């Protein structure tokens, strides 16, 4: 009689041990996945739900990491965009001609939006961007802050014509040759606005001579 009672209990104990073993294996696998995702992604925060979405945490990697050429373009474009915003803010304060100030306002708005889009794209590929410029650009910004009136207007508009010519060349190259399809599409999308900026800068530059 005792043997009959012990047999079901023994089977239940074996089954219980087997289930716990599977659970431990599953949890171990899940923990490894989380660890790998955290290490390879940019953050441990919430996941982005698309362009324009703002989350309290950072954005997890959702695409293939950018190759070296694409990363170089992204960093250069981000720094250039930051410079455009900072220079535009200075121009709004130090500029004299109303067309210069209006152009500067457009630069701040357009490049702030472009910078935000680029930052989100880069973050989704595991590349973090900063809102700072290099030492050379910072020295230029400091020098511009000391300029006033017509001298500032001329310097700023000359700068805008030259910078946008170089930027357009970089974006045309990325729009045709970037490896990442989303980055390629973003560069192509930005080109019409950049060309419009250059045309406006050229016209204003001639008008204030």
UniProtKB/TrEMBL annotation:
Record's protein name: DUF4142 domain-containing protein
Keywords from the named record: Signal
InterPro entries the UniProt entry points to: DUF4142 (IPR025419), Ferritin-like (IPR012347)
Region entry Disordered, spans: 22-67
One matching Pfam family: DUF4142
Domain of life: Bacteria
Keyword Signal: yes
Compositional bias segments (type: Low complexity): 25-65
Signal peptide: 1-20
The DUF4142 domain, residue ranges: 69-203
PANTHER family: BLR2558 PROTEIN
